[in-house]
Every structure is written in structure tokens, then in C-alpha cells.
Amino acid sequence: MQFSNPRYENEEVTYEDVFLFQNYFDGNSRLHDTSIIPESPIGTSIPIVSANMNAVTGKRLAETLTRYGGLGILPQDMDLSVMKRIVTSIKQAHIQFDTPITVTLENTVRDALGILYKRSHLCVIWVDEINRPIGIFKEKDLLEIDQFTRLRELRKPPLITARETISWEDAYNLMEQEGISSLPIVNEEWILLGILTKTNVVRWGIYSPNIGSDGKLAVAVALGINNFQEKARAMIDMWVEIFVLDTAHGYQKNMIEAIKSFRKEFGPHPTLIAGNVITTEATSALIKAGANGIKVGIGPGAMCTTRMKTGVWRPQFSAVYHCSKEARKLGGFVWADGGIREPRDVCLALAAWASHVMIGSLFAGTYESTGDIYYDTNGVMYKENYGMASWKAVNLRTNKLSPFEQAKRALFQEGISTSRIYLKKWRESVGDIIDDCMTGLRSSMTYIGAKNLKEFHEKAVIGVQTNAWFHEGTPHGKIM
After folding, report:
1. What parts of the chain have a pLDDT lower than 70?
2. Is 123 a catalytic residue?
3. Cα gap 105→208, rounded to integer Å
4. Residue of 179, 39, 64, 59 lying closest to 121 (CA atoms)
5. Can you name the CATH fold of 2-95+208-370+424-469?
């Protein structure tokens, strides 16, 4: 990557300050002539990881993102017992079929409606005592029925299934032919394995899942920098191979000692990402201590108030660019953490030599994130999001301390405790956001003449713009 004007090399700029220049592309197709597989060694086939935030990444989001080739990072605040349960669930999930939401004859309509929005296929499957599908319900099938009615009292809904050996094209054609949007998948004993949607079978022609060395969906775990050994050991025993040592101020003695301790106890095999930092000196120190990758960003996230509280920060594009240059010199890589609002931000972070971008708030407003669905006064769905240094997060993290100790720690909160993240059309699911970002990235690569991410890094030419230039590029046509 280079700046169009060398004098901007050491200017401090963020994503809205910069743009990419056009270049010649000698391929034919954005889809088939561009590869978005990252170079870093974490098994991903797309350069997206989820933020290790309590309101973002849990079982459903990590599982779904990994199916599309990304990686879910479970938060460090999870109890070990909860983390074991979630990792077990992800490892047992099917590599490509989405996990179905199931109900039994004894469940009520209220039960079914209460879990309907947990996954983006938006249906529940009625199963018998040995998990064989009987029928499938969409929301429209249940809305006009008393919520305390048991499902066994309803007329059995129509059911069309397919065997696990069906091809993606045949599955799509079957759904098209039958006028259905969701297709339960069964094995030869008619046991329910998963569910497909028309959108998903199209995606499987584009994305490939992130598989760990155990042949199952990969998962990553975030750890605090104190007393992490028991959790890390348990996760390694469960085939977790990627860890994030995470603290807001990553350039400190305790972090460097934690990295060295991790390597001494668990050896060189697990991939270790450490952060957060914003300078070349910090990047160098953490990689030399034993980290493979560095998480870069202080305060660009939507839920963070660190910049306003402390005055410590760096514009995110410059932070990613300079830290990435240093990391590459030392054989490491960088994750751009925070500030991703639009697909263009993903493109710019990767142009600045990030290997992956870490997404938080965009994912918080999806069916698969950890939060519950709420409705505002207009009946519009939203979820609640909060920062990992907010009062709410600090309170949850310290709830085993004495009330006095909790009160002292609550003074040091740097984040928003409650924010409404609305589920927006075309961005309601993890898959929607992945599609939006990855189609944008593929198009960006063709605009600058790159066939893979290495070429994208090398050929990117960055210009610096005014605020007026940025707004000229936003949609501003009148809707009549």
C-alpha cells in the first residue's frame, strides 16, 4: 500500500479521511477471479472475525460466522462451565447445515414464538421424541392462535424434507418448485440434521467453512491477562486452537508477562493474538514476547468512550497501517478492531495490511447475536448492546467481589452500558452482513486490479480527502 502523496504517510487519518484509487483489472469476474482468503494462519476463508463482546458473540453467532469462513471469538467474561458448553455445542454443529430450532408436541405456541428469532431461518421444526421432523412452523402460522395452545392441538403443518446428500442446486430448485424458503435436512433414518434456506444454498457456492484440525467448526476464545491458565488448558483439551489475550491497554508489563506465560505453558502451537495497541513500539513488544497477531484499536468502536474519557487514541486507519507494517516485519499480523460501519471500512482496513477486521456493533443487531429481541413503541425489533469497559460489563465481571470492591472498580468505566441496535433490513443476520462486506470487498479488489488479498495490499493507492469529498460519495438521491 502507498499514499498517492507521500507527505500523507505520517499524517494521522481514519477511514472517512481516505479513499482508494482505481487501477486496471485483467480478470473477468468479481466472483470467480478474486480470492478473499486471508494469508494469516487461522483457517479462515473470509477476513472477518467477531468482537469478543458479551452482547455480540455466543454460540449462535460463532457457529454461523465460522460456517461462512470467518471466526467467532467467545468473550473472556464467560464462566468456564458456560464456555465448555458453548464450545461443545459449536463442535457438534453441522459444518454447513444451519442448526434447526425445534419444539415438541408438549410445547406451546408461546414457546415456539419465543425462540423463533434466535436464527435467521425464522422457523421452528416440530419433532418427535427421537428428533424426527413432523412439521415446520413460520411466524404467520402461529400469530392468530392463543399463545398457550399446545402444538399437539394444531393441525400438522406441511413438511418437505431432503436427504443430506442433496446438492446445493437441487436443494434450491426443490424449494423453488415447492414454494418454500426453508428445507429441513434428514439422514437415512429420518433424523433431523439441520436446515437450509434458499439464500444459504446460494452462499455455499461462494463461502467455505472454517474447519479446525479436529475436522469440526473452529472457534476462538478470549482470555483476560490474569489467571487464564485453567480456562486455556480446558479449551485446548476441547480442540480450541486460537486464543485472544485481551485488555484495553495492551502495551503493559502484565500483558507481556501473560504472553510469555502462555507460551511457556502451552508451547508454540496455539495461535495467540494480543491487544489492544495502536503503536509500532507496542506491536513489536507483543510479537517479540510471543504473540502471533496483534489486535489494533483504542476507542473506535461504537460502544467505547475511552477517547472522550482519557484523550488516548489514534485514528484507526493510521493505527492499522503503522502497526501492520511493523507486524509484517516480524512475521506477525494485525486485526483491525473497531470502527467498521460500512463495507468500505472493511476494504480500507485490509488495504492498510490488516489480515482481518473485527466486527462488533454490526453483528450485535442480528438474529444470531447473544441478546434478546425487544420491540420499541412502533413495534420495531432491536437488541441491546454495551461496551466491554462499560459499567454494565464491569459489574458483571466483578460480581463475585465484595460490594465495596465492586463500587471501586465501577468508577473506572469507559463505555456505553445500554444502546439499542435495531435489526435493519438486509442486515438482520450474520449472513447478510458477510454478503454486504464481502461483495463490496470483491468489487473493490477489481477496481484496484487485485486478484487476491496479497495483491490488494500491494496495489492499493490511498488518497486523503476532505469531509465534503466523503459526503459526495454517500447516497444522496431523492426518494420520490
Report:
1. 386-399, 401, 404-418, 478-480
2. no
3. 36
4. 64
5. TIM Barrel (3.20.20)
> In this structure, are residues 45 and 69 in contact, taking their beta carbons and an 8 Å threshold?
yes
Question: What is the value of pTM for the model shown?
Answer: 0.91
Dihedral of alpha carbons 251, 73, 304, 229, sign: negative
pLDDT in tens, 430-472: 999 999 999 999 999 999 999 999 999 999 999 999 999 898 8
Asked whether the beta carbons of 195 and 182 are under 8 A apart, the reply is yes
Nearest to 335, CA basis, from 279, 275, 280:
275
Q: Out of 304, 323, 347, 437, which one is annotated catalytic?
A: 304
- State the angle between helix axes of 59-67 and 80-92 in degrees (0 to 180), rounded to the nearest 10: 40
Buried b / exposed e across 132-151, counting CB within 10 Å, b at 16+? ebbbbbbeebbeebeeeeeb
Q: What is the pLDDT of residues 187-209, one digit of tens each?
A: 999 999 999 999 999 998 899 99
What ranges do the domains of the chain cover? 2-95+208-370+424-469, 102-198
Residue 215: left if φ>0, alpha if ψ -120 to 50, beta else—which one?
A: left
Fold of 102-198: CBS-domain (3.10.580)
Cα–Cα distance measured from residue 361 to residue 341, given in angstroms and rounded to the nearest whole number = 8
Helix (H, G, I), strand (E, B) or coil at 76: coil
What is the pLDDT, as a whole number, of residue 417?
55
Q: Please tell me the distance from the alpha carbon of residue 53 to that of residue 364, in angstroms, as a whole number.
A: 9
